[in-house]
Amino acid sequence: MRIDVISVLPEMLDGFVNNSIVKRAQEKSVVEIHLHSLREYGKKNYRQVDDYAFGGGAGMVMMIEPIYELIEKLKSERNYDEIIYMSPDGELLKQKETNRLSILNNIIILCGHYKGVDHRVREHLITKEISIGDYVISGGELAAAVLIDAITRIIPNAIGDEESALTDSFQDDLLSPPVYTRPPEFNGWKVPEILLSGDHKKIEQWKDEQAYERTKQIRPDLLDDNV
To answer: What is the CATH number of the domain that holds 135?
Structure first.
C-alpha cells in the first residue's frame, strides 16, 4: 500500500513515520509513506499557499492552485483509490473504515491548515473527508498520523502478532475485555481465577462476556449501532 501525504508542514510527520510500527511496516515493504511539501508548489518567490478569504472573516485559507497541481502530478503517476481530506467536519473515523482503507492500493491524505482549504478542493478533488473527533486542532498532520497508524497496524505483516490487531477494541463492534499479566496477585488485587485455569474454552467465553459487559456499560451506543 502507498500513502501520499500533502502538508504545509510535512516535518511534523517525519518523526512519526520513522518510528515504531509505521517504520517497521515500511522496512518490510508492507506500506510506503511519502510526505509532500505543499510549499514546493506555492506561488511567487515566497511559495505562497494561503490567502485571505473572499467575503472577509478571520483566518487564512489554503489556495486551490498548489493543491490541484500536486494532486494532479501524483495522479499522473498512478491511480488513487481515495483522496482524503482530514477535516473536523468530516465523517468520524471508525474501525470499519480503517479496515476498508487498509486493503486499498494507493491513497492521498491532504492535511488541512489555517482556516481550511478553498472549498472547491473539497467539491472537485477530494473523494472522502475524515475527522478524528468533534474538536479542532491546529492542523491536519496529527489527524493524518492517527489515520496512518490505524490503517498500517492492521495490514498483514505490519506487526509481529497479527492476531493482536484483529482482537483490538471495535474490530467486532465491542470493546476489548480486561487484560492482566504477572504477578497474579499484587497489593491484594487478584487476577480473575478463570484466566489462570488453563481452560481455553472457558477463558474465551469469559472474554466474550466481559467484552459485551464493558461495551454495555461504557459504550452502549456501539451495541445500538448493531440493533
So the answer is: 3.40.1280.10
